[in-house]
Amino acid sequence: MIRLLTFLTLLALMPLAAAAQQGAQVAFGGMQQDTRAPVEVTADALSVNQSDGTALYTGNVVIAQGQMRLAAPRVLVVYAKDVGRIKRLEATGGVTLVSGTEAAEAERADYDIEGGQVIMSGNVLLTQGPSALTAERMVVNLRDGTAQMSGRVRTVLQQADSPAPQGQP
After folding, report:
1. Using one digit for the tens of pLDDT, what is the confidence trace for 121-160?
2. Residue 79 contacts by C-beta under 8 Å, 6 or more apart in sequence?
3. Is residue 75 domain-resident?
4. I want to staple 100 with a disulfide (CB 3.0 to 4.6 A). Which of 30, 34, 58, 116 is the partner?
């Protein structure tokens, strides 16, 4: 977790990738995500339910796939009918998603692995360098590296240092 916090701190030093307005599309992840890449999950505990094809990871859950990292206290993994293939992940309890140079936080994230889409909801905060965007919902398309934000979007853009106007310090 310390590595994740260090990484998130370093993100604040990177330049703004894109800005958004209400319902606007933003860049996310700087690169496209290979949704066919292996998924690695680490957690404090695991409970498997063979009857419904789910696995519940709890406690310091970290999921890695390619350049993407997702961290949450609780993640439910739903397996496809094909043995060993993950269909979707449902992360709850406060979620952090890091991809490329961006980081996002929300109360919940649902990752459709087959569809290559992450839906984050509940007090979404997207950090891109020194700037931040907030919304109630963000849909991330991992195939093309874009995101759609909706639900009272607020953008805080940090301007690059520029010379002060004449006559001012």
Report:
1. 999 999 888 889 999 999 988 888 888 999 999 988 777 6
2. 53, 54, 55, 85, 86, 87
3. yes
4. 30
Which amino acid is it at 100?
G
Supply the CATH number for residue 78's domain: 2.60.450.10
What is the domain range of residue 73?
24-156
Question: What mean pLDDT is predicted for residues 25-52?
Answer: 78
Q: Is 157 left (phi over 0), alpha (psi -120 to 50) or beta?
A: beta
How many independent structural domains does the chain possess?
A: 1
The residue-averaged pLDDT of 109-123 equals 92
Question: Tokens for 4?
Answer: 């994740």
Tell me whether residue 119 is in a domain.
yes
Residue 149 tokens read as: 């934000």
Q: Could you tell me if 117 and 142 are in contact, meaning their C-beta atoms sit under 8 angstroms apart?
A: yes
Report which residue type is found at 151. G
Please answer whether residues 15 and 129 qualify as being in contact, where contact means their C-beta atoms are separated by less than 8 angstroms: yes
Euclidean distance between CA atoms 60 and 81, whole angstroms:
27
| Residue 73 covered by a domain | yes
Cα separation, 56 vs 46, in Å, equals 6
